[in-house]
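Problem statement: downstream parser choked on a complex file, so we are re-checking the raw output for the zinc ion run. The parser issue turned out to be on our end (a line-ending mismatch), but while we're here, posting the original submission so the record is complete.
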Amino acid sequence: MDASKLRKFVNRHVRWLRWAMQMNHWQVDLCVEPIDKPKTCATFTADPKYQQIALTFDPAKIDTEEDALKVLRHEMIHGLLAEFNLLYDAMERVAPRDEMTLLDTIYHHSLERSVVSIERMLDSGLGLSGMAFIQRAKKVSKNYDPVADNDQDEKDESTNEQNK
Ligand SMILES: [Zn+2]
């Protein structure tokens, strides 16, 4: 996907995901650039203490807006679970170094399985795949204006989108 198109698409929709997940107070920083791991199309890091999330999307590995939305929702669900980072930090401090490899594998496996379970609940249990998730958030949010604190270009773009 074209990098600037991808950036605009993600910026436009991440606000509704923040609303849907009630993470409006979290700052989400977005980076669109190549990721030097063949099978990784996006990366996620979070600092729960400061409620900050950093997302990186590789435009060469995301083909469609549908893919972008699926990846974005996946990464934002990781955001929902970001408090577990504190557990990881504690494990790193107290676990013996030779035990940490196993703990790291179990930790990441458990997190990934939890994200997939939430995705399954949304997609199959509630029928909220793709844009249905965003539309549901827009319907529920009523007076919330997710573009109010963003720059005018994006606000104009979003307004134009709504007027189509
Ligand atoms: Zn994941």
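For whoever reads this later: The chain has one domain: 3-151.
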